[in-house]
Amino acid sequence: MAAMLKGLPRLLPARCLSSTAGGAAATGTGPATTPLRPRPNTLTDEIIRVDHAGELGADRIYAGQMAILGNGPMGKTIGHMWEQEKEHRRQFEQLIQQHRVRPTIMTPLWNVAGFMLGAGTALMGEKAAMACTVAVETVIVEHYNDQLRQIMDSPNPDKELLQTITKFRDEEQEHHDTGIDCGAEQAPFYQALTEVIKFGCKTAIAISKKI
Ligand SMILES: [Fe+2]
Ligand SMILES: [Fe+2]
To answer: Does 111 have pLDDT greater than 50?
Structure first.
């Protein structure tokens, strides 16, 4: 039976596999550097899908800001945050592969929307770009804190995921603080601008969790 299972395609649902199937899948078709793991539970699945989408969006937001402000006085600061977002995205892309999680079908939209949000606010000025950063990072820090509580409350907390999200949450908090330090609150229509962006981010999160 185990020998028969070895030949099964790697996307076969976990419920179809015996307890030895995780090991069989680990010897499957994934790249050598990212060993496949047993099929994740629904919580892990949802967390990885939505965080992958969020970090992709964040990468594109900072790319949009850099396209407009990259050569200005804020270029270095924004560039540093962008580098961290690229690393967050890279790590969630790895987790998506390792856990065989389906990415959100909204990926192409978040790609474009993220860039437009970053570039659009940057066109309004450096302070508006920072207001965008503050709004986005406020939502992401809250979102990561919610996830950390969910993971810790789960029967088998995934320690690696806890560590990853804790580190990223701290870096997102730094991005938020950088935005405040760089004058976000002096942006025109700061309150309205940040509320609209926060609402957009929360909607994107709710959608990406499910589809
Ligand atoms: Fe991030
Ligand atoms: Fe961030």
So the answer is: yes
Domains (range + CATH), the chain: 38-210 (1.20.910)
Return the closest-CA partner of residue 54 out of 176, 179, 144, 175.
144
Dist. CA 1 → ligand 1 center (Å) = 43
Alpha helices for 11-125 (secondary structure H) = 21-26, 42-69, 75-98, 107-123
Cβ neighbour number for residue 27 with a 10 Å cutoff: 10
Residue 185 neighbours by CB distance under 10 Å:
14
Which sign, positive or negative, has the C-alpha torsion 72, 114, 48, 134? positive
Ligand 1 (ion): residues with CB under 5 Å are 55, 58, 85, 88
Q: State pLDDT tens for residues 130-142.
A: 999 999 999 999 9
